[in-house]
Amino acid sequence: MINLQGVSLHRGERDLLDRADCRIFPGHKVGIIGANGCGKSTLFKLLLGQLESDAGQVDLPGTWRISHMAQEVNANEQSALDYVLDGDNELRLLQKQLVQAENCGATNGHKLAELHEHMANIDGYSGPARAAQLLDGLGFSHADQQRPVRSFSGGWRIRLNLGRALMCPADLLLLDEPTNHLDLDATLWLEQWLQRFAGTLLIISHDRDFLDAVVSGIVSFEQQKLVLYSGNYSAFERARAERLAQQQIEFEKQQAERSHMEDFVRRFRAKASKAKQAQSRMKALDRMAQIAPAHVDSPFHFTLPSSEKTSNPLIDLREAAIGYADKVIVKKVQLGIQPGRRIGLLGPNGAGKSSLIKTLAGTLAPLSGERQCGEHLAIGYFAQHQLEALDSNGSAILHLQRLSPNASEQSLRDFLGGYGFIGDRIFEMVGGFSGGEKARLALALLAWQKPNLLLLDEPTNHLDLEMRHSLTLALAEFPGAVILVSHDRHLLANTVDEFILVADGRAEPYSGDLDDYKQWLLGFNREKKRSEEKVSEPADLDETPSEDKKAQRRAAAALREQLKPLTNKLKNIERQMSASEGQLTEIQEKLSDEKLYSGGQQDEIARLNKEQAAQREKMEELELEWLEISEKLEEIRGE
């Protein structure tokens, strides 16, 4: 058990923790949340023994193996596969001892046998295969696994650190913002991996859907204390909203915020089509209205103004080939961006989503075809390189003054205040800003210029939960067009009305929602793996191309008979999943009813939360069973 008793921690003039208590039991998976700079990463250093508390006691079992995700990577000639394998120290030590024992020859036979037995006991012989699977899940191709670490960019090196942390057999796993440099498919893979992890997990994350899928408890930094909430992040929001509602001073703010959101939902409902994505977004916005009171004390309050002038279309791509040099990544793109259109780009890693956004932004010219711009097009383009382009020797207010030299200081102060730059912070040099602060400033600069088309490539990296919430609200009401790439499913669900799937060299409309895309992605990755395996297998030169037709029919009939029990079972599971999903929806609607929290119904709330957890567990079991049977069917069919 992790036990913090009366822990105080000071850094400079700041009190991060003041006599804080917290207990986390073995096997629990807990999300650590709080504003940037509140002390989340410092808490990890305490648990790792890299820091000592100023007061109080931090106790962990002495026998626990602890794995954590480092934030720095030494660029060296070591291959990516070997770098990840180094995460398992015991395995690497055994490998060295085996080499030494084998070099000694027959005189050390007993020692050699002991080492091989130990290697088998820790499943060490499968180590390279497990490391390769981790790298595959994190988006590294087979060729990438042999590349030297130094050849990867910063974001991909962070992925290597994540793989190295997951490789370590651990009783306690500490992950600090693991999804920051992941795309959606790698994020979904990591969710599934962590759901299967048997140890204790503490995870710092600002991705609410990721937390909802992985954790069963939340530790929130609140007024230098550690407050433990039961349930996932959504349950935390409801509990916090209920607690704040009991504080009369905050109550009026809550009602105003909820009224504002509910009015927006009504307006959107009147305009929404019957498309599946629009219906999904409507449900998400309904939920946003319910949880709005949990964020009334957010330090971020801003809107995204749009240019008064616009064109129709804003941009038109015609038969555009997108790529670099002579390599086409996406071909024959037909895409017209009209005012008010809101598109989310989906697709596996490397399929060309960012390249498509760069082409729309004009920073990457199409290899062929046309890119036509409207007369009044005003683009607001956000990508991670915008953070690097900021002047490290300039202040936040100076960046705005360069855009608008005649603007008054007060108007600039008011504007920057909505992005969390308050008081004299507007005069601090950008070079000393954190990644989150740089991202907020880049968004502020973008908004100040009043674009009518927002092109956003992973805008939430480095942003905390409160800033993500405020950005989601601002984007939901932005009157211009939006093209968005993000691994943050909450942002996608509440921001876009339609999806375009970028895959297999095409960019085409996608009729499903995010749940459908998750299933599509699982199938895509399975097919990709099978293709890679087939390529690596030598061809059978003795294979006969023709068979007797009667024998083929008999074989087909036998195959159908063999498949029948599995296909029937698969259909039964799908019916159960549909029923369970309906029950989950019904429970969610009951938990979203504000009347439930009017007092005196704590037992009912507890019952519903327990029932919800049971249904989610049932759904996970059914999904795993569905995948297992599907894989068996594929094996039998020889797919």
TrEMBL record:
GO terms for molecular function: ATP binding; ATP hydrolysis activity. Transmembrane segments: none annotated. The keyword Coiled coil applies. InterPro entries: AAA+_ATPase, ABC_tran_Xtn, ABC_transporter-like_ATP-bd, ABC_transporter-like_CS, ABCF, P-loop_NTPase. Residues 2-248, 312-529 form the ABC transporter domain. Keywords: ATP-binding, Coiled coil, Nucleotide-binding, Repeat. Residues 556-639 form a coiled coil. It holds the Pfam family ABC_tran. Residues 531-552 are annotated as: Disordered. PANTHER family: ATP-BINDING CASSETTE SUB-FAMILY F MEMBER 1, ATP-BINDING TRANSPORT PROTEIN-RELATED. Belongs to the ABC transporter superfamily. ABCF family. YheS subfamily. This is Probable ATP-binding protein YheS. It comes from Microbulbifer okhotskensis.
